[in-house]
Write a structure and sequence with these properties.
124 residues, mainly alpha, 5 helices, 73% helix, Cell division protein FtsL
Length: 124
């Protein structure tokens, strides 16, 4: 009986040992994948920073002006004229002040427990 119990315990221990080692190696694989992913993210952030710096350099007026001057005839570019912009009197006026009486009535009816949406649904 005790020999059989010992054999079962040894087998159980071996199965547990194999499980722990498998878990250890899977965790190490995941950790190495995480480190590789972090390195890739760092590399891509560096590339993005470099691209942003290049973009800001290429968009500087001092860099763009000679290119525009060189291709002005081919692209039919002309300077912006004053009349291409809108006028101040074309801007819409500010809206009238909101109807505070209606809003106060709505809030007071809600405080009283009356649901105006429910009334509209029942009316239809």
């Amino acid at each position: 009986m005790i020999k059989m119990l010992n054999a079962v315990m040894v087998c159980t221990s071996l199965v547990g040992l194999v499980g722990v080692y498998a878990l250890k190696y899977s965790v190490e694989d995941i950790a190495s994948a995480k480190v590789a992913l972090e390195r890739k993210i760092d590399r891509q952030e560096g590339d993005l920073s470099l691209l942003k710096a290049d973009w800001s350099y290429l968009n500087q007026p001092a860099h763009v002006a000679p290119i525009v001057a060189r291709h002005q005839e081919a692209l039919a570019l002309v300077p912006t004229a004053q009349d291409q912009f809108g006028r101040m009197d074309n801007l819409p006026m500010r809206p009238a002040a909101p109807d505070t009486a209606a809003l106060d009535a709505l809030l007071s009816s809600l405080d009283a427990g009356i649901d105006p949406i429910e009334q509209l649904i029942e009316a239809n």
